[in-house]
Design a protein that fits this description.
Layout (H helix, E strand, L loop, with lengths): L14 H6 L5 H5 L1 E11 L5 E11 L5 E9 L5 E9 L4 E6 L6 E6 L2 E8 L3 E9 L5 E10 L2 E12 L2
Antiparallel strand pairs: 1-2, 1-10, 2-3, 3-4, 4-5, 5-6, 6-7, 7-8, 8-9, 9-10
Length: about 160
């Protein structure tokens, strides 16, 4: 099972500190190579490492295309493809190879929330938050089925170039 998710952190900060927070530009961050190191926790299973190596850039239709190579525990390596485009200010939509529904992404300051439905009826909510260095992100994903949490992913995305 492949997941990647984002979680926004709640912080109390003075206006000066808030102004210093980096703004998340998803296209800029994911253009080039990134590596995400996660732990996947599925109900009634042992946690397994979930490593995603990605290469992203501008597609031929002006959209953003990203190819993921997914290493999930001892399972065979899989690939998946994201195609995303702007749907207005702070909003992107698109497709993901293993999603049953369109992908919806809302950006807000230093974070993004991505939602879609996967095969098997899993509702995915991923939360990404860029860190102060601008080259790493926290990644938190929750997968629910019938309203119950089925799995979660927690990790870090690193920009490699």
């Amino acid at each position: 099972m492949k997941f990647a998710t984002l979680v926004g952190l709640v912080a109390v900060a003075s206006p000066a500190v808030a102004a210093d927070k980096p703004r998340l530009d998803m296209v800029a961050f994911f253009t080039g190579h990134t590596r995400t190191e996660n732990v996947l926790r599925v109900v009634l299973h042992k946690p397994v490492p979930l490593i995603v190596e990605s290469v992203g850039g501008k597609g031929d239709k002006g959209d953003f295309v990203m190819m993921d190579t997914v290493h999930e525990g001892d399972k065979p390596v899989q690939t998946r493809k994201w195609i995303m485009r702007s749907a207005g200010p702070n909003h992107m939509t698109g497709t993901l190879t293993d999603a049953m529904s369109p992908v919806d992404m809302v950006l807000s300051g230093d974070s993004a929330v991505i939602r879609y439905k996967m095969k098997g009826g899993l509702n995915i909510e991923q939360r990404l938050q860029v860190q102060a260095d601008g080259r790493t992100m926290s990644n938190h994903v929750v997968a629910k089925k019938f309203g119950l949490k089925f799995a979660r992913v927690d990790g870090t995305v690193r920009k490699l170039d």
